[in-house]
Structure formats: structure tokens, C-alpha cells
Amino acid sequence: MQGIKQLIATLHPLERKVVPHLKEGISLDELVKVSKLKEIEVMRALQWLENKAVIKINQELKEVINLDKNGVKYRDNGLPERRLLKQLKKEMKVSELDVSKEELNVSLGVLKKKVAINLRKEGNNLLVSITDAGKKLIEKDSFEESFLKQLPIELPKLEPEQKFAYDNLKSRKDLIKTDLVKLRTVALTDLGKSLLKEKLDFKEMIDKLTPQILREGGWKGKELRNYDIKINVPKVYAGRKQHYRAFLDTVRRKFMSLGFTEMTGPVVETEFWNMDALFMPQFHSARDIHDAYYVKDPEYGEVDEKVMLKVKAAHENGFNTGSKGWQYKFDTERTKRLMLRTQGTACSARMLASKDLQVPGKYFGITRCFRSDVVDATHNSDFYQTEGIVLGEGLNFSHLKGLLKMFAEEFAQSDSIKIRPAYFPFTEPSAELFAKHPDLGWIELGGAGVFRPELTKPLGVDVPVIAWGLGIDRLGMFAMGIKDIRQLFSHDLKFLRNAKVVW
């Protein structure tokens, strides 16, 4: 009972005008008539009552017959055939009838079909006279005229006489029309049924306090309407960052707060930095045209000759690292070919060869990469990676494992992770990081390892370097609860307005 009293105290004036007329199955149109409110006011009241679990609004699409522009005129003034019949006090020339040319032929056809008139030809004139059947038609409304006065009506609910009238009228110009309309009806909930059993008296309720009421004490002994702070209100969509852009900025801030320095590189890269400097042999399958996008024009770029010769030596004989290298003839022209960057590790190679490199040091990059791939919920041909290196004396694989665990927990917000052995041409040992998504299951986040000396020494680095490259798109999916990688780049305004933003 207390709940009902509290509910009554929250009812808006529009709701209070509608509630007394509520009953099971009543339609919106009926409520408009009995409440004497505007349709928009009744609809608003019903939506508020539905939010309060008093009613449920049922919506159904129905075919409804309604008056068209000529139908409105004929409903009020009678069909043109009735006006024609009333003029036939005696036999008349058709040309003398006071009926528009547009209506004349239709009226004559309808009346002839009903045996209400006789037509005969006399010279060049067509004469018309009324029959006994026609005189009886004048005495009362025809089926068609009665039907017009009953509209609107649902098409499936037509009685046989109404169906007869409908069939006669539907082919006539702008008389009736059949629309597909949304019919709204009310179903009472248990709470609504309980509410209607209460004695509702809203006369002593105050909706708005005014200075006059406060000054004169008009509020004494009266109920004050409670504000319903739980009711749904229209959403206001303020400007904000795109959800994935905001996540990438968050990742950037977190890395920088851990003391990492950001590194960058070009999207259009040479094979040298994208693959050769990473000790990836030129015959490696990842260089196949089906994996990488190569630039057609210009086809070749510039490469630092001194660095290139050291990398060439590492590939051919190991460059004094104790390794034999890959034992093949390094192609110095191929290494200059331009391509879209396939991995963020190209930025790591550039950083290791840079004069700005600090030892010890920690570097990260958020890099856009491109690979030919089958697009699905977890793969895209255009994606981001978060790339990083840490270099210094005494670093080993255990330090890398700790970093990978921290990344999964911090960025993917997952404490279920797996680190599995893997193979990459430029790291030894190598590993892959997996994390468990609540809906998609185990997802590979990326690869990691300790850079081989065949990579670091030709670039001028002689200390251990631990490195990783993680699919940050998938990390974003974890953090934002997204199930499809394509939603990270969605243009759907409805999705963007409701997407979770991680700051």
C-alpha cells in the first residue's frame, strides 16, 4: 500500500488526467477522446506510466481505411450520385445536370449499375430520368455513404456490408485510402490494476511551489507532488573523443607515466627497416605480396648506406656476432622497396639505430600497420600495434614476462593470461601473449622476445633488448567490452553515442 501511495505522489498532471480512463486494451485514440487531451500529451503520459511499470504499451501495425480529400467532402455533402438524383424531378439532359465533369461519368455509371436511372438518346442529346429504385435511394444513406461516416476502420474488421461499400469506393479517385498505421493499446500491469483500485483524488495536490503559495501558506494540508528522479529523460549527447581514440590516448599516458619515451616512424616504410634490419631473411614468407602491401609509385626509397652494409653482413655471415647469418646473397636493391608498414617493430629498429637512443632506456610506440587479411570479428587489414623495447645491462626473459603480465592486466583488464613459446626471426627466445575475453575466449594479443644480437649489433647496440608488439586493437576490445574489431572504427552514430569510453 505504501508503494502505491508513493506512486500516486509522483504522478504528473498529464498522468493524473489519463489514469482515471485507463482500462485493459484501451487505445491511444480512445484515450485522446475521453481525456480531451492532445495526442502528444496522452502519449507522453502513457510513456511515463510505462516507465513506472503501471502499464505496458503494445504496438501493432494495422491496415486502416481512412478518408481521402474527396472522401471528407462527400462525407459532409453526400456522394455526387446522390446530388445528381436529387436534381431529377423530371427527365433532363445530361448536359444540364449541376455535377462537375469529373464526377458526372462516375455518378452515371454507379447509378446505372444500381438501376437508379434510365438513359436514352434523343438526337444529339443524352437524356436521364430517375427510376423507382432511384427514388428509394434518396430516402436514406447508401451503403457507401454510411461507410464514409464510419471511417477510420481497420481493414480486417470489415463486416460484409462494409466490405461491399469498400470494394465500390476504393477505385474512385481520392475517396478513401488504406494506410499502414501503428496502433497503440494499453495493457495494465499488476501495479496498474492495484493503482486503479485506489480512490484517486488529485484536487489537493500541488505540482509547483510559487512565492505566493509559500507566502500565504497555501501548501498547508495539501499533498506536494514528488519528483521522480529515476524516470527516463531524453539523453544529451555532448561532444567527446571517439571511443578508440580516447583509449589510445589512455595507453599513451600510461606508458609515459611508467617512464617510457614514445617512438615513431613513417607509415610508408622501406623493406630495410620493416624487415631487413630486423634480421628477417629476404626469402621469408612474410614478404610475400599476399601479406604486405607494396607501393607501386615510387617503388624505391632511400636507405642509410653505412647501416645497410652492416645489416647486409649480419644476413650473409653474422656480422661478428658468433652467428653464421642466413648464408645468402643480400639484395641491396630489394631492401629499398617501399611498402606499407606491416609491423610496429620497424619503429624499434629505427630507434635502436638513432643517435637519440639512451642506454639504459624504455621506448614505446602506437603504430598503424597494414596487412592483407580476411576481415572478421578479430582481424582487420588496417590495425594498430603497441610496440616497445627496454634495453640495458642484465635484462632477460623473466623481465619480459613480468612486463607482458602487467600489459594484459592494465590494458586488457584480464587476469587470465598465457605466455606460450613462439618463433620470430628477430628474437630468441620468443613468446606469444594470450588473454581470455569473456565472450570471444582466448585471443592472441601479440608477440614478444629478446632481440637477437644479429639485429642489435649492426644497429650499434651491445646490451640486451627485450621487445614486444601487441595488437592494441584487441586490447581496446577488452577494455571497452567490444565483440567485433570493426566497431573500433565504426561510423554508426548510434553506436558511437553509446560506446564505452576508457579514459
Please provide a written account of the structure:
With 503 residues, this protein is of the alpha+beta class. The chain folds into 3 domains: 2-62 and 181-224, Arc Repressor Mutant, subunit A (Orthogonal Bundle), CATH 1.10.10.10; 69-177, Winged helix-like DNA-binding domain superfamily/Winged helix DNA-binding domain (Arc Repressor Mutant, subunit A, Orthogonal Bundle), CATH 1.10.10; 244-266 and 343-498, Bira Bifunctional Protein, Domain 2 (BirA Bifunctional Protein, domain 2), CATH 3.30.930.10. It has 20 helices and 17 strands. The protein has helices at 2-10, 13-18, 28-35, 39-51, 69-77, 80-87, 101-113, 132-139, 143-150, 160-169, 190-197, 211-216, 243-257, 271-274, 305-317, 345-352, 397-411, 453-456, 472-480, 493-498, and strands at residues 55-67, 92-93, 117-122, 125-130, 153-154, 176-188, 205-206, 223-224, 261-262, 268-270, 338-340, 361-370, 382-391, 417-424, 427-437, 441-451, 465-471. The strands form 5 sheets. Strands 9-12-13-17-16-15-14 form a 7-stranded mixed sheet, with helices on both faces. Helix 6 crosses helix 7 and helix 13 packs across helix 19 (472-480). The radius of gyration is 41 Å and the shape is elongated. The two termini are 45 Å apart. The mean pLDDT is 88.
- Output the CATH topology of the largest domain: BirA Bifunctional Protein, domain 2
Summed up, the domain count is 3
Overall body shape: elongated
Structure classification = alpha+beta
Residues in β-strands, percent: 15-25%
Could you give a short account of the major beta sheet? Answer: 7 strands, mixed
Given the structure, what is the number of helices? 20
